[in-house]
From TrEMBL:
Transmembrane segments: none
InterPro entries in the cross-refs: HAD-like_hydrolase_sf (IPR050155), HAD-like_sf (IPR036412), HAD-SF_hydro_IA (IPR006439), HAD_2 (IPR041492), HAD_sf (IPR023214), PGP-like_dom2 (IPR023198), PGPase_prok (IPR037512)
Recorded family membership: Belongs to the HAD-like hydrolase superfamily. CbbY/CbbZ/Gph/YieH family.
Reaction(s) this enzyme catalyzes, per UniProt: 2-phosphoglycolate + H2O = glycolate + phosphate
Single biological process term from Gene Ontology: DNA repair
Lineage: Bacteria, Pseudomonadati, Pseudomonadota, Gammaproteobacteria, Kangiellales
GO cellular component assignments: cytosol
Protein name per UniProt: phosphoglycolate phosphatase
Cofactor: Mg(2+)
Enzyme Commission number(s) from the entry: 3.1.3.18
GO molecular-function terms, A-Z: metal ion binding; phosphoglycolate phosphatase activity
The keyword Magnesium is assigned to this record: yes
The species this protein was found in: Kangiella spongicola
UniProt pathway annotation: Organic acid metabolism; glycolate biosynthesis; glycolate from 2-phosphoglycolate: step 1/1
Length: 229
């Protein structure tokens, strides 16, 4: 594990990092495909399209089907189905609650930066009773740019008055890692998410570490902040 200093702020990706949302996305996607007479897709295929936000998800699916010209109708249907049940099957990954509680107890600020449309994030956070943990939540449509642009991460830093090198970005994809590198922010990659290539979460150019569970980070978080000053 690369030596990471005690953070003043931890920014989390959502899908594939804090929560396993693939089941709900699969239901919305397959309901959409059924409406369009396209074949239903297994969970492992759905996971390959997660990470860039809803628009990118639909674009990749339609590219797979050879129907890129169907975007407008497909996106509208997908969002309709996903809005109806955004958190029915979504659960937190093992180890997430432990780390969030430790961070909160230690006075570390927390935020979420996802590429998912902002309107879908709130229902998930509320369903999982995580409302009180995050000081700021950004979706892929909250700003003009989204990950891998560094702007969402830097926006959070500015809003919460924390320098990027005093933060951790925690994510499961190349977009998360690239955003951290572009923001010059230490990165924590998680192996249990939706990334297909292990090298995606081992970026060059910033301090980083890779964990199999967020619970592995708890030894780096202590109520005694001075231990890591």
């Amino acid at each position: 594990m690369t030596k990471l200093t005690f953070p003043d702020l931890v920014i989390f990706d959502l899908d594939g990092t804090l929560v396993d949302s693939a089941g709900d996305i699969q239901v919305a996607a397959n309901n959409t495909f059924e409406e369009l007479d396209l074949p239903e897709q297994p969970l492992n295929q759905i996971k390959r399209w997660i990470g860039g936000g809803a628009q990118v998800f639909v674009e990749q699916a339609l590219e797979y089907f050879g129907k890129p010209e169907w975007f407008e109708q497909t996106y509208r249907l997908f969002m309709q189905f996903y809005r109806a049940l955004p958190a029915d099957r979504t659960v937190m990954f093992d180890g997430v609650q432990t780390l969030l509680d430790q961070l909160k107890q230690s006075g570390v600020k927390m935020a979420v930066v996802s590429n998912k449309p902002h309107e879908l994030i709130g229902p998930i956070i509320k369903h999982l009773k995580l409302d009180d943990y995050f000081e700021l939540v950004l979706g892929g449509d909250s700003l003009a740019e989204k990950k891998p642009s560094p702007e969402p991460l830097l926006h959070v830093c500015r809003e919460l008055k924390v320098e990027p090198n005093k933060c951790w970005m925690v994510g499961d994809s190349s977009k998360d890692a690239e955003a951290a590198v572009n923001a010059k922010m230490p990165f924590v990659g998680v192996t249990y998410g939706y990334a297909l290539n292990p090298s995606d979460i081992r970026p060059q150019g910033v301090k980083h570490t890779v964990v199999d569970s967020l619970e592995q980070l708890t030894p780096l978080i202590s109520v005694e902040r001075d231990a890591y000053a």
